[in-house]
Structure formats: structure tokens, C-alpha cells
Write a structure and sequence with these properties.
Blueprint lengths: L1 H16 L20 E10 L4 E14 L2 E12 L4 E4 L2 E7 L2 E2 L5 E12 L14 E11 L4 E12 L4 E13 L4 E12 L3 E14 L3 E10 L4 E11 L1
Antiparallel strand pairs: 1-2, 1-14, 2-3, 3-4, 3-5, 5-7, 6-7, 7-8, 8-9, 9-10, 10-11, 11-12, 12-13, 13-14
């Protein structure tokens, strides 16, 4: 009941505080350092060695202004091995565009804080049973009109097993047209107990500029042999 009340409060807060994007504002979601109020809904399949989880992931992003954004992510999954369904681990993120248009090629420097909370039941196979606390910075670099890079570095701490590490990403944004683009993002996280190798491939197509886009993603975790597939839609508000 407490979880249900909390989720309802988050949704109500988001509904009350979200404001519509100005109709004359040009939205360019191919650059992740551009911060917009939006609602994302995703269907998801996570394939592990011996079981799968699947369900829906809701992602609320509220742009306080053009330089500050708060993200809340609510995954609702089912584990086909335990036959249990429920809330998985929630995620909270804060972005702050500290600098914009630093030079002709560097369009933004964006520090962030990222928290994953163990709200999913570990015994039911719906959660990781650890807090993940991370802080870092992403830099936006435009190479040409169709290709941009968003390299980032972050420090991450896990409460179980009380380990810290460093994460690195080199997110590339490739625009195929005005309405379609791809994110290709290799990710390395180095802990003392292991190095985690991952990647994200996320194709996006804008159906209605400033309003709706759809996307399909494949996110492999090579170290732990986990494959995640997502299909969803984004509504800009």
C-alpha cells in the first residue's frame, strides 16, 4: 500500500508540475544534453541465463527550465521463473547543464546524479537488493551536422557489496534524417571485483515534431550475459 501511495504521489506531482513545451520551440531529442519535459512508456524484456523478466517501464522527465531536469523511472515487471509481478527497482536522476555553447563544437557540460533504489523484491526476482548511487558529467560534442558524441564519466557506489567504481561511456548520436536517429553507447564500469561491459543501441523515429517519437532499443550486458529489449513511445509535453 505504501508503494502504491508513493507511485500515485509521484504521478500526481508530475501531472501538476509539467508544463507544455512552447509550440514555437524546436525540439531536438537527438542530443541528450537538450532537456525537455516528457513522458516515456516502454515495453521491456530482460533475458537472463535461466529466467526472463518482462513488463512496462514508465519514465517521467520534468524540465524545471532549459538547464535543469528531474527524472523518475518506474518499472513494473514479471519474473517467469518465480511467477511474481510487481514494482522493480526505481530510478531517480538529476541533470544540470552547467555550461552551454562552450565552443563551436562543445555544446554542453552536464553534471548529473543518478540513484537506483532497491524497491523491487529480491526474493521474487524483481530487484537487485542494492542501492546504486552515482555522480558524473556528460559533455556534448558536435562533430558535424549528423554526428555528435556525448562522452561521460561517473563515480558509482553500491551498498551491496559496499563497492565503488568508475564508469565510462562514449554515447554517439547519428542522425539519418530530420526525423530519425540512433544512439550507440558502449559503457564500461570498473569495480574491484569485476569490470562490467555493456552497450546501448537505441533507434528513434519522430512521428510528430515536438510531440511524439517512437523507439526500439537493444541493451546487452556482455559481462553478465543479460540482453534487454525495449520498444516504446515518448510524448513531449
Amino acid at each position: 500500500m505504501k508503494k502504491t501511495n508513493f507511485i500515485a504521489t509521484v504521478i500526481l506531482f508530475w501531472s501538476l508540475t509539467s508544463v507544455a513545451q512552447e509550440s514555437n520551440q524546436t525540439i531536438d531529442p537527438s542530443k541528450p544534453t537538450n532537456l525537455y519535459t516528457q513522458f516515456n512508456t516502454l515495453t521491456e524484456l530482460n533475458s537472463y541465463d535461466t529466467f526472463n523478466t518482462y513488463g512496462i517501464r514508465l519514465n517521467f522527465q520534468y524540465a524545471i527550465d532549459t538547464d535543469n531536469l528531474i527524472l523518475v523511472e518506474l518499472p513494473f515487471l514479471r519474473n517467469d521463473a518465480t511467477n511474481e509481478t510487481g514494482l522493480s527497482d526505481m530510478r531517480f536522476r538529476y541533470f544540470r547543464a552547467a555550461k552551454r555553447n562552450v565552443s563551436k563544437s562543445i555544446i554542453a557540460i552536464v553534471p548529473f546524479a543518478d540513484i537506483t533504489a532497491p524497491t523491487g523484491s529480491f526474493s521474487n526476482g524483481l530487484g537487485g537488493d542494492t542501492w546504486s548511487l552515482a555522480v558524473g558529467t556528460v559533455v556534448g560534442i558536435v562533430l558535424n551536422k549528423n554526428i555528435s558524441l556525448f562522452p561521460g564519466i561517473n563515480y558509482v557506489y553500491l551498498t551491496k557489496p559496499k563497492e565503488s567504481g568508475l564508469g565510462f561511456q562514449t554515447n554517439m548520436s547519428i542522425k539519418f534524417s530530420q526525423n530519425s536517429f540512433l544512439f550507440a553507447n558502449p559503457i564500461i564500469t570498473m569495480f574491484s571485483f569485476d569490470t562490467i561491459w555493456q552497450a546501448e543501441f537505441n533507434y528513434n523515429y519522430i512521428i510528430k515534431p515536438n510531440k511524439i517519437k517512437v523507439n526500439a532499443a537493444y541493451n546487452p550486458n556482455f559481462t553478465n550475459n543479460i540482453n534487454t529489449f525495449r520498444i516504446g513511445a515518448t510524448f513531449f509535453l
